[in-house]
Amino acid sequence: MRFGRILEDLDTFAVLISYTHSTQGTEKKSPISIVTALVDRIELGEKPFSPFKDIKMKGSVTWAGKTSMEITMNLEQEDASEWKKVLTARFVMVARNPLTKKSAFINALQLTSQEEEKIFELGEVNKVKRQGEAKRNLLKTPPHENEIQIVHEHFLKTLDPSSSTFKIRVKPENSVWMDQTKLKNLIICFPEQRNLYNKIFGGYLMRKAFELAWTSAALYSKSRQVAITTVDDIVFRKPVEIGSLLFLSSEVSQQKNISEGRIIGDIPEDDVYVCESKYQEPEKTIKKLGKGLKINSSQLYGIKTTESFIDEDSRSMDTSISSVFESFTPQPEKQQMSSSSKKKCSEGT
């Protein structure tokens, strides 16, 4: 199930709920314009979506101020003849006067039960929390003392103790420079992605941003088994015009609980070798190397292919065609593979 498409559906559904709330009397059409200001939070359940079963969307206005409202939506999917919640999302929508483009007043909520009062109070708490987080923005306030201490500790870990300058940096073990995780994309905003106001649909923007973030995580972890658990604070600051060139960038900003990857437990450790071969352009042949690297099953972490390079002197391409198993454990010693061994390296391309 493509989560980016779910984001588009959530945005459309939130706008529909907002328009339904803002109608007046017997009129079916709302006199105001509704735009998405913020995706406050999206939480997914432990069980992933199934692409083979229908999804039921439910939502309502859980808090309303003078010109903005909070929309809470739940997605349910049938499991063992029972509809179970698989996602909860909170969107903040704002009303605009279609003529003046300024804020417009919306209908107030009428609370008819204690349950509705508790839901409304929770929406008020979420509003105060959002206002507090906006004030603590790094563009407005400096970091706290504990945040400064964390940044300084990370900085000290990257200094070369044998050097007297800050320009020489040392990457800590089992780490990656944050700049190396950056990924960028450029898209053209065509009219087919427009909304009711001839601007680019916000759900489409969220989908493209999520797909880039997912790709960054997949490249960083060297695995396509990347799952999303939470979406927090997607803010729409300005509308995107049709025909715009939209520049997107992402990077891994934090990592928790280093993943051990997918262990290939079905392969006996005596049958695991790293096989290497070289391709020489002048001879146009693939030559098998005589040495193999034996790996234990407990040390399997991930798979990558080594990069190819071109020798400028001989103008020949020397490519190591191999599958290298990485591990956080010390590298095992290379062992000579006997010709009589049944674990032979294939000479395929």
From TrEMBL:
Q: Which GO terms describe its biological process?
A: acyl-CoA metabolic process
Query: Which GO MF term does the entry hold, naming one?
Result: fatty acyl-CoA hydrolase activity
Q: Does the keyword section mention Ribosomal protein?
A: no
Q: Gene3D superfamilies in the record, alphabetically?
A: Hotdog Thioesterase
- InterPro entries per record: HOTDOG_ACOT, HotDog_dom_sf
EC assignment: the record states 3.1.2.-
Q: Where is this region: Disordered?
A: 321-349
Q: Could you tell me the keywords of this UniProt record? A: Hydrolase, Repeat, Transit peptide
Which residues does the UniProt record annotate as the domain HotDog ACOT-type?
A: 1-99, 179-308
In terms of domain of life, where is this protein from?
A: Eukaryota
Task: Please verify whether the record's keywords include Transit peptide.
Answer: yes
Locations of Polar residues compositional bias? 321-337
Q: Which GO terms describe its cellular component?
A: mitochondrion
In terms of PANTHER family, this protein maps to:
ACYL-COA THIOESTERASE (PTHR12655), ACYL-COENZYME A THIOESTERASE 9, MITOCHONDRIAL (PTHR12655:SF0)
Q: What is this protein called?
A: ACOT9
Q: What organism, scientifically named, is this protein from? A: Mytilus edulis
